[in-house]
Write a structure and sequence with these properties.
The protein is mainly α and 107 residues long. It has one domain. Strands 1-3-2 form a three-stranded antiparallel sheet. A hairpin with a 5-residue loop joins strand 2 and strand 3. It is elongated and about 60 Å long. The termini are far apart. The model has no long low-confidence stretch (mean pLDDT 92).
């Protein structure tokens, strides 16, 4: 027998905290919750943490993914960030959060 439980967004976030994996901002949790809810997905906290990363700012994002764009193709940092975002969107799920951060499905 399989038992399913419907979680509120608060309960969803608490599952991460209870497992010592409070890795996301409120905006990040909201987006993850909405995506899993839309898919009627089963929550596996460890799998979500392995599959999704949140970056607080563009500097942190460039540290991990900056190799995808050539600095010579850009006049300034803003243009480089736009090119990086385009490159990431072509390869995986990539979201700009309202708090200035980024949520990316790791690849």
């Amino acid at each position: 027998m399989t038992v399913f439980m419907t979680l509120s967004q608060y309960e969803f976030e608490q599952q991460f905290r209870n497992m010592g994996r409070d890795y996301y901002s409120p905006e990040g949790y909201e987006l993850l919750y909405e995506m899993l809810d839309d898919m009627d997905g089963e929550l596996d906290v460890v799998a979500v943490c392995c599959e999704w990363s949140e970056y607080e700012n563009s500097k942190a994002l460039f540290e991990d993914y900056g190799y995808l764009v050539d600095e010579g193709d850009c006049e300034d940092e803003e243009e480089r960030l736009e090119l990086l975002g385009d490159e990431l969107e072509a390869r995986t799920l990539f979201f700009r959060l309202s708090n200035g951060g980024y949520l990316i499905q790791d690849f």
